[in-house]
Every structure is written in C-alpha cells, then in structure tokens.
Specification:
The chain has a four-stranded antiparallel sheet, with no helix packed on it. Strands 2-3-4-5 form a four-stranded antiparallel sheet, with no helix packed on it. It has 298 residues and is mainly β. It has a single domain, classed as YVTN repeat-like/Quinoprotein amine dehydrogenase (Methylamine Dehydrogenase, Chain H, 7 Propeller), CATH 2.130.10.
Length: 298
C-alpha cells in the first residue's frame, strides 16, 4: 500500500509540474499490440490477435507495411538484417525479410516462446512451459543448441559472454548461463517472478510480479536497487538521456528511473495495458496491449 501511495504521489507531482513525458503521436495497430523493436529505420510491432507485424515509419508516424505472420506473435528482435517474431499459439519462431515483407523461415521451438534476445552472435528464445532456452544461428535460421534450464524461463539478456535468464511464475531468481558448458548459476532476488530483462547503464534490469523494477549487478548478482512499480510492471528500455523506462500494464503507466541515483523521476499515464517499450528516433514508443495502438512519448 505504501508503495502504491508513493507512486501515486509521484504521478500527481509529475502531472502538476508538466515535466513528465508527453504523448506526441498515437499509431493505430489493431487489437493487442504486444512486443516492439526498433531497427532497419523503423519501429516494428507484433499485433497479437491479428498475427500481423506492422512497420512504422518514425518520420511520419504512419504504418507503411502490414505483414501477416501468425496469430499469437509477441516477442520480437532484429538480427542479421531480418525481423524475428515468435508465436505462443504455434510455438514457431518466424524470420521476416523486411525488403520482401514476408516470412522466409519458420523454426519450431518449445512451448510458449516468451522472450527473444540477441547477443554472442546468436538469437536466443526462452521456452517458458518447457524450461529450456534455444540458441539460434540467425545466419542459417537453424537451432544450434537447446539448454535445459528448468523452471519457467522468461526474459533473456547477454552480458560479458554469458546469457542471463529471468525465471517467471514461481521463480525468485535470475540465472547466469555459460553458453559453452551449459552450466547455470542461480542469482537469488528475493522478489517474485522476474519477467522482462534488459541491460542498461552497466546493469541488468528486470521487472517482477510483486511490483518492482530491480537493478542487478551482472558480475555479483547483487540487487543494487528495488524500485516500486505497483501493479504489473513489464517492458524495460533505456532512453537517449540514459533514463530507464518501465511499462506497467495494470495501471496503464510508464515509470522513469534515474540510474545515477536509483530513484523514480516520474510516473506518466500511458495507453491501456502498457506492455512493451522501445527507444526509436529519439523518443520512446509504448504498446497498449489492452488497447489497439502504440504511443510515442517525447
């Protein structure tokens, strides 16, 4: 309750001062826009219900292409000049050629591919229901290795030659995976069900089901900061001013964190079901999963 009241106070103060982020564009996508990524001169959004990948031109804030992929697409990444999305309804990882605007490869993966990450020359896919992580070669569109990590692997990130895994559902830890040996080192968090995972300001940042954004030292596993984000905090991204943005889908907000002080700067109202956030063209873009648009914040 105290955390909720504190965050509400920050929200009111930011609104009163007019210093918080402001929406400068809303781009209709169709129902349940889910994951978002920036690259190849565009903002890409996976629309869950329709199964379409939309390409947005940030110069005009208009959709320039809709590519049908498959229903249930959400996690998205850019690698090897292609856009990659995965569906939890088909359990397939799709490679999309942006020039031809079509699917050029389909790779079966484990049940519920929850998150994608790039790094160490590979594309990584978490199999939430099977307790595995797949390593995919983006040049050949083939699975190189499948690691049995147990639990419910969710968010993924690569740092210093290791893959870090967030364990959702009943999990309370991150794991550091050595890709060469397959050894997994647990990193306890004392917080419930970490989900999204990102690297920013030299640290790992994850959001947890008990309503926090955590900052973790990737070298030691020490929690360096626990910032309350009441509700259901989700996607994380870093802005060009190095602030950390956290989308929160239950109360429809975005929270900005100053990594220099580990303090919340402000909390701003966002679209319904604010889920994922990505930096592009100097601004921040937030998907409205319970709605039908992506919002551009300045």
């Amino acid at each position: 309750m105290r955390a909720a009241l504190a965050t509400a106070a920050v929200l009111v103060a930011a609104a009163a001062s007019g210093t918080g982020p402001r929406v400068v564009a809303r781009v209709p996508t169709g129902a349940h826009p889910c994951g978002a990524a920036a690259g190849l001169g565009s903002v890409w959004v996976a629309v869950y219900d329709a199964g379409t990948l939309v390409r947005i031109d940030p110069a005009t804030n208009r959709i320039v292409r809709r590519i049908h992929v498959a229903r249930g697409i959400c996690p998205i990444a850019i690698a090897a000049g292609a856009v990659w999305v995965a569906s939890d309804r088909t359990n397939v990882l799709y490679r999309i050629d942006p020039r031809r605007a079509r699917v050029v490869a389909r790779i079966p993966v484990a049940a519920w591919p929850a998150h994608l990450a790039t790094g160490l020359g590979s594309l990584w896919v978490s199999g939430y229901e099977r307790g595995v992580v797949a390593r995919v070669d983006p040049r050949t569109s083939s699975v190189q290795r499948v690691y049995a990590v147990g639990g419910n692997p969710s968010g993924l990130a690569t740092v210093r030659g290791s893959l870090f895994v967030a364990f959702g559902r009943g999990g309370t830890s991150l794991g550091r995976l050595d890709p060469a040996t397959g050894t997994l080192e647990p990193m306890p968090l004392s917080h419930a069900a970490p989900g999204f995972l990102r690297v920013a300001s030299g640290s790992l940042w994850t959001t947890t089901a008990d309503g926090f954004a955590l900052r973790v030292d990737p070298a030691t596993g020490q929690v360096l900061g626990a910032l309350p984000v009441p509700g259901t905090p989700a996607g994380i991204a870093v802005a060009r001013d190095d602030t950390i943005w956290v989308a929160e889908k239950q109360n429809n907000t975005v929270t900005r964190i100053d990594p220099r002080t580990n303090q919340i700067l402000d909390v701003t109202g966002a679209g319904p079901g604010a889920l994922d956030v990505v930096a592009a063209a100097g601004d921040m873009w937030v998907t409205s999963y319970a709605g039908a648009d992506v919002r551009r914040f300045r």
